[in-house]
Structure formats: C-alpha cells, structure tokens
Amino acid sequence: MSKAAIRAEAGRLFAAFQAAGAVPVEADLLLPAETMLDLYGEDIRARAYVTTDPLRGEMMLRPDFTVPVVQAHMADGADPARYCYMGEVFRKQEHLGNRASEYLQVGFEVFDRAAPEAADAEVFALFAGLVQGLGLRAVTGDIGILMAAVRGLETTERRRAALLRHIWRPKRFRALLDRFAGRAAVPAGRVALLERLAGGAPEDLIAQAGAFIGLRAPEDIAARAQALIEDSQAAPIKAPEAALLYDLLGLQAPAEAALGHLRGITPLLPAIEPAVDRFAARLQALRARGVAVESLAFEASLGRTSMEYYDGFVFSFHAEGMPAVATGGRYDALTAVLGAGRSIPAVGGIIRPHLVAALRGAV
C-alpha cells in the first residue's frame, strides 16, 4: 500500500468530517510528557516515544490527538464545537508484531453539553457511514455502566478506588476483584508482609530496618503500611454484588437485548440506574439515525484496553485479522481534568486510513 493511496484516503475522510460541520485543527508533534504521564501514569511511557528538550524538559511524540484537542478547546473553544484533524501518531508496537509505529490518524470530536446521547449517536452514525461497504463488524459498549457498578459496591473507598484505577487493565482488575470478593487467596508476599507488620508499629519497623534508602518519606511508608493493614481487615465484597459485577464484565449481546438484561439487574445494583438510563437514551438516538439496535453488538467490557480517558459510550469497527479500523467513545472526565475546573461533555473517534485503504483495495 503506497503512502499516496493512504494520504488520498485520509484526505477523503478528513473532507467528510469537515462536511459534517467539523473545524480543522492542528496539534503539535511534540507534547509535554508530564501531561500524558499525569493522565495515564507511567504505563504510557512503555507505548510512547519520549525525549528530552533542553528548555521544555521531557517531551513525547504525539501518541494521539484527543488530549491536545481537548486542551485547545478548554482554553478557548466555542460551545458547542466540532473538530477534525489529520496527522501522524507514534506508538511503540514491540508486543504487536509488525504493526507500524508511525501511522496516519483522522479524527472527529464533538463538544456539546445539550444532548450527550444524541452526540454519541451522531458520531457513531457518521463513522458507520464512512466505513460502510467494507464488511466491518461494529461493536459498542459503555465504560460508564461498569464504573457506576464499581462505585456502588458495598466495600471500602480504597478498594473501590483500586478497582476504578485498574478498569483499563482487565487482568489486574479481575485479580483484585477475585481477592476483594474472597474468591482468591491473598498473595504469599502480601501475607508475609502483613505478618511482619503485625510485629510492631510501621514507624518502629522502619527504624529497625537501618539506613533509609529511597524517594518515599518514612511517613509515606508508614501510611502505606497502615493502609495494607486496614485492607486486610476489610470484609469481602458480598457474594451477590460480586456475582452481578462478574455478570456485567461478561455481558455480550445485541444492544437492545443488553438493555433488557441491564434493566433486569438494576434493582439488585441500583448504582447503575443513571448509566443504564443514558444507555437507553443513546439507543433511542441511534435508532432515530437508522441504526439497527436490535442487532448492534454490545460488549460491556469493550474499550478496557484502549486509552484510559474513555468513561462512557465506546465503539469500534473491526475487520478480521486487522487492528480496529475505527474506534471512539465518550471522555467527559478528561475535559474536567484538562479544563482547570471547567468541563463539557465530549465524544469522538478516529479512523486509521491505511487500514481503510487496504480494505478498499480488497473489495
């Protein structure tokens, strides 16, 4: 596949987004690494190209467009607003075989507080139209339902925070849930540490350890030790609550049927009711745009290995044997983090033009 063909496909998609009312925007290739690390933690470092500028400090080659677009919008954007962009992104791909580490991305973002579910439907329908005829499978999900379920668990605030922090790391999330629900034994290393902590106050144990080495202050270590002790004394998550969460994690069904299932478990897990109501409103908006929600795939865990700013509706379009051709979702919380106290509901998505061009060449 030639670069010219990929550029031509990118141009077609970019023009379609502009025709849908989006204002073209640019984003710097080099972004402050501190911002990305604050948002995603050190995990992003393994996937991004990081360098050091003598004046600007640690910088990162653009891993995606959403963060810089949100920053620009929150600084001086109109309300509502629609943006589109086209350009290269850079990600390390060692664990993904021969995928390109530099590739073109074309995207569309909507900032609109009037009707978030209608905006979700607008974005999904636009992307569905652009990839129509390529034989892709569309899948939708809703991270917000899972987050609401975790927030509603009858357990300690610390355990809820740990589960929320690891929603985007499915294996770690499952291991924590298994332990918090009493379905898995406490790791041997933690047991040994708790036995050691039972032998005296953390401050005394730190003093007995000898010379102090490390970046953490003694009071930080003592606080962490106390948190471990308190966690070991917490009651397990009740079996019915845990069972509902396990059920939710594995929910895969046509969207309309999934809504019926979620309505059925809402009385047992009332914290999810507002998120389920939003799901229902979104299906109505999708139906109004001609989307067959009775057959549209829904997976409650979709998006849990994507960028960690999604906190609501998510979607992807797949072809067998390829990475996702198009992905997107809602990221309301990100606008609050980058908005210095201000926020606005936001949803968007990206298309990988090199994959679209490859598929067009095969059909």
TrEMBL record:
What region holds the Class II Histidinyl-tRNA synthetase (HisRS)-like catalytic core domain?
Answer: 7-249
Q: Which InterPro entries match?
A: aa-tRNA-synth_II/BPL/LPL, HisRS-like_core, HisRS/HisZ
Gene3D superfamilies from the UniProt entry: Bira Bifunctional Protein, Domain 2 (3.30.930.10)
The entry lists its GO molecular-function terms as: glycosyltransferase activity
Q: Which Pfam families does this chain map to?
A: tRNA-synt_His
> Keywords on this record?
Glycosyltransferase, Transferase
Query: What PANTHER family does the annotation carry?
Result: HISTIDINE--TRNA LIGASE, MITOCHONDRIAL-RELATED, HISTIDYL-TRNA SYNTHETASE
Q: What is this protein called?
A: ATP phosphoribosyltransferase regulatory subunit
Q: Which organism is it from?
A: Cypionkella sinensis
